[in-house]
Design brief:
The chain has 139 residues and is mostly helical. The chain contains four helices and two strands, in the order ββαααα. The chain has a two-stranded antiparallel sheet.
């Protein structure tokens, strides 16, 4: 979503709350190249046989869940929750950042046109039209 299409997303670590309970650490070394350069996609190939970097669309989520042996619904929920949190927080954080005006515009444009972000906005808009004004649509 942030336009980190140069493979920096490969940087991850595990945190162990106990010897048998690992979880992913917060991301780090994020470089949002979309603020500086034109480009799209992401920095990872999801599967060993992938020839291209794929966007995280529903068919890829389904294949990834099967590949990892985890329930598709659980993976989809994690992705939806992540997108929801990003939509609620990232635009404001980007606007308050020390990036140049052009970098902010590039980054916000890339973010708003991400397929997952666009899908969430459509779902929220549809919910509002069905009488659910409690769902806020952030900028």
């Amino acid at each position: 979503m942030i336009g980190n299409f140069d493979a920096h997303v490969k940087n991850f670590s595990l945190l162990y709350e106990t010897a048998t309970a690992p979880c992913l650490s917060p991301t780090y070394d994020i470089v949002a190249y979309s603020g500086y350069l034109a480009g799209e996609g992401n920095g990872l190939k999801f599967f060993p046989d992938s020839k291209e970097r794929e966007k995280l669309l529903p068919a890829i989520v389904r294949r990834l869940a099967n590949f990892l042996g985890i329930p598709e619904k659980a993976l989809s929920k994690v992705i939806a929750d992540t997108v929801s949190t990003a939509v609620a927080k990232w635009p404001k954080a980007i606007r308050r950042s020390e990036l140049s005006r052009l970098q902010k515009i590039n980054l916000l444009t890339h973010f708003k046109h991400n397929p997952s972000v666009e899908a969430l906005r459509k779902r929220k808009k549809a919910a509002c039209l069905r009488g659910r004004p409690d769902l806020e649509l952030p900028d």
